[in-house]
Automatic annotation (TrEMBL):
The lineage of its organism: Eukaryota, Metazoa, Ecdysozoa, Arthropoda, Chelicerata. It comes from Antricola delacruzi (Soft tick). The keyword Coiled coil applies. Keywords: Coiled coil. Residues 99-120 have a biased composition (Polar residues). GO terms for molecular function: K63-linked polyubiquitin modification-dependent protein binding. Signal peptide: none annotated. This is Muscle myosin heavy chain. Transmembrane segments: none annotated.
Amino acid sequence: SGEHTFVNVEHTAPHPDEDKIQELQAQVSTMKGILEKKEEELAELRRVNGEIKKKLELIPPLEAQLEVYRSDYDTEKGQRIDAQDRVAALEERIRELTNRNTNTAPRQDGQTDQADSAPQATGPVSVLLCPVCTTMCTTRDAYIHHVQRCVETAESGGL
């Protein structure tokens, strides 16, 4: 029984389901690539989101600090305006006192000339009172210098 049976296998066309399987596998591969890209994008967006959250956490303290600065500025601005008003009032008072003193000085000079006909070497001594502390000054320069110091001291809280 030396006979062998040979079966000739015909080469058959691929089964139609195999084509679909290959097509679906290609789609799966493509979708995996897209999914990887989307996961990378998601990771980047999460990182950016974390950075933005950190920056947003800084906003309330910065707003509070801004409000403190604004309040300080408004207070200092009000104090500057008040100080300027006080300086203007004191300057007006100085002018009034200087004018009053100047107006009384000629009368005193006239009385002095009548009482003593000899010329005086030093001239009449006038006393200027500081409008802030009523300190007496004998010269105009000393008076102006003193009043400026007195006003500066009063502005800084000394009086």
